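Re: folding output
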Amino acid sequence: MEGLRGECLSFFEKGSHYVDHVERVVALAKRLAEFEGADVEVVEAAAWLHDAGRAAEDLGECEDHAVESARLAPELLRRAGFPEEKIAAVVKCVERHRYSKGLKAETIEEAVLQDADRLDALGAIGIYRAIKIGLQAGKPFYDASIKPAEVYAGNSKTTINHFHEKLFKLPDSMNTETGKRFALQRIRIMREFVRELECEWEGVA
């Protein structure tokens, strides 16, 4: 997949998602695919491509990075010498990966990519990413007077509210048994971090 990786690198020079995120999703997706019996070649290719359109969305050049990534995928796959008969499966995985669209996975490969992408928002890496993106957006880190919304509307008012509104709910959205297991392991450190942070902030711990 080195050729495909090279094709994808230029898409991650700008925006909120960088190549380190994609590399982690690739590693997670391959591991989940092996546990769940998915086509590793399809899953790995889809993982490399799933955020190719993210920078375009961040820059206002497209409305939906999943749709844009899927549009870009066939040409990139062909240039990398990817098997023609598997391209359609990769495109579907990419098109359906996005959490906020609420699309249900229709194949095990789609399920694996969704889980791998969501897992990278959890655990120690998830804490780092949430803080980093919150700072980039200029959001308050924590404000006890701003209560978390019951339903995530796509734009939390504080970084810590983002944990309550979206991140803590991600384990329930996992498709595969392996994904659920990994998610529950990762969510524990996040809950402990937020619990300690809120106590220290209020001076009670």
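--- second protein (sequence, then structure) ---
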Amino acid sequence: MLAEINETDATGEIAAIFEDVRRLWGVPYVSAIQRHLATRPGVLEWAWEAVGPAFQSGAAQRAAHAAVQGLAVPSLAAIPREALTLWGVDDKGLAAIRGCAEGFVRVAPINMMFAGLMTALLGGASPGGGGGASSHEPAWVVPPPLPAPPSMVAPDKLDPAAHGVLMRFATMNDGKPFVPGLYRMLAHWPAFLAHLATVLPPRLSEPAVAQAFDLIRKRIDDAVPGVLAGLPSAPTKRPMPTAAERTHFQSIRGTYRKTSPELVVLGTLVADALPK
């Protein structure tokens, strides 16, 4: 798995950035992209100094959420409550699963915007020096945080069958498997995750779903220049990451560029399939 700093182990400036991310993203956890960048000396600190103002103003979140509106994808079959019971999912578990799905639908597009802004700046783009959020738009209000999700299961702690199911959701990056946090949370209910491992992969090959993934990526890409224009023009006090770090980030970004649209669409499908 990719290296990362656990939230409970973060100290100093990294801990402060993690707290900002939790608050501004509106979820009680920090995503893997920030936890991984925190392991790269100075990278997360530079990134937050450079792009943080766009998230403080809400311009980045507003644009990210607009990018995932109006998607048309075929739904999953409704999951009967009796099936959930057989899979060991009680009412508390159902609420937790729904919260997991809704959390990643909220977080994934914001992380795509975060990565898109970083990519632009690392590629030589300059902030526009604007004032952040448009004066014609209502002030950004951070949404109430979702309930704390279940912990992320460590793949090596699972029995062989459950581990095999979880790894069906893995994407390789630099020769190491990366499993999005959604599936590591849902691994607390192996039978339910096994159901998803059966019904979700066929969706990935459907034209309407592939088009939705491409549309999310295009909308995020198209929104980045506008958000960048609102960032302060003052240069960051920290040096830009080295060429080696920029190359590493592009590899990481490629993984998230693939998995983040999937989390938006598949998280929505899972939430909609659960009993009301």
